[in-house]
Design brief:
Layout lengths: L26 H12 L5 H8 L3 H9 L5 H10 L4 H8 L3 H18 L5 H9 L4 H8 L3 H10 L5 E4 L14 E4 L24
Antiparallel strand pairs: 1-2
Helix pairs in contact: 2-4, 4-6, 5-6, 8-9
Length: 201
């Protein structure tokens, strides 16, 4: 539920603002997946609201964290703020700002309706699902799927590594990606399909 009168500024007081989890081979892919699960239009409405802010107002939103702070960072990148400027205002490591800039550049092209095989591949590498790309580019889902098949951009599955490579472990849990190598192999014998998160009681 959206509460327009609520104070969205984050501080030391504990607040419930919701969570979203994304797993990917890179910071942008994991982040984009989490944002996509949160909002179907990838924050298009929130980004439009950020467009209306003056430079002074935008600086204040960057300095004082709110629940949707990431969209203010996208807006600052769109306006030409350098990664160092944003890092100084937000106190977020410049590496992560640079990774967000990769996302912003691809999203900007999609929002303007400019997309081809290269942009589509970049969007998929960032973790954007076809349904989201269709909404952003105002194309039909069938058009996006046909392009995917024509350009042979195929989904692969990577195993979740609980030890981050420190130990030889196999979780038998996989997440979708668009890398070339597929780590998921069909299991022999009978199989069971679990619909839902698969958690126990």
């Amino acid at each position: 539920m959206f509460l327009p009168e609520a104070n969205w500024r984050l501080g030391t007081q504990k607040r419930s603002i919701g969570t979203a989890v994304g797993i990917g081979r890179s910071v942008p892919e994991a982040l984009v997946k989490a944002l996509t699960y949160q909002e179907d239009d990838f924050g298009k409405t929130r980004l439009a609201a950020m467009h209306q802010l003056t430079s002074s107002q935008l600086d204040q939103v960057l300095i004082h964290p709110e629940a949707n702070r990431i969209y203010s960072i996208f807006e600052a990148l769109r306006r030409g703020y350098s990664t160092d400027e944003i890092a100084e205002l937000t106190h977020i490591e410049s590496y992560y700002i640079s990774e967000l800039k990769r996302v912003q550049q691809v999203m900007e092209q999609l929002y303007t309706g400019t997309w081809d095989a290269q942009i589509y591949r970049q969007a998929k590498d960032l973790g954007l699902p076809d349904a989201t790309i269709a909404r952003i580019t105002e194309q039909s889902f069938e058009t996006i799927r046909t392009a995917s098949q024509t350009w042979q951009v195929n989904r692969t599955y990577k195993e979740v590594d609980p030890a981050a490579g420190e130990f030889e472990q196999h979780s038998a849990r996989f997440y979708a990606s668009f890398e070339r190598e597929n780590e998921s192999q069909p299991a022999p014998g009978k199989r069971v399909l679990v619909v839902g998160p698969g958690h126990g009681p």
